[in-house]
Design a protein that fits this description.
Layout (H helix, E strand, L loop, with lengths): L1 H21 L2 H14 L7 H8 L5 H41 L20
Helix pairs in contact: 2-3
Length: about 120
């Protein structure tokens, strides 16, 4: 029973290895590690070097992007609050127009009612 478990585990590992190889992950990592190996002056952060070589932002770029996201979130919140206030005011105007008499009603003559029916 133990042997069967080991075979299944090995089969899963081999399937995963083939997946990494066929999707280009192995080549990409190999190229990055070779580039790191060939650096005469090794970077202070090997992980940051690898992230940059794989197309990720540098730490300073990441911080800048985080600050931009934070600023945009604040602006969004302000615009959303302003939009909600404008919608509330519009709704109040609509409601006040429904309840306020119109100009036609203010001419001293009420709605024409006829008890005679159609002419």
């Amino acid at each position: 029973m133990m042997m069967r478990y080991k075979e299944e585990k090995d089969a899963k590992k081999e399937t995963f290895r083939k997946y990494l190889d066929s999707s280009g992950v192995v080549d990409a990592l190999t190229k990055v590690l070779v580039a790191l190996y060939e650096q005469n002056d090794k970077p202070s952060s090997a992980l940051e070097f690898i992230q940059q070589k794989l197309g990720g932002p540098s730490a300073s770029e990441y911080e800048k992007l985080q600050a931009e996201v934070s600023d945009l979130q604040l602006k969004y919140n302000e615009l959303l609050a302003a939009h909600q206030e404008t919608c509330r005011e519009l709704e109040e105007l609509k409601n006040s127009q429904k309840t306020a008499p119109t100009e036609e009603d203010n001419d001293g003559v009420g709605p024409k009612e006829s008890s005679e029916g159609p002419a």
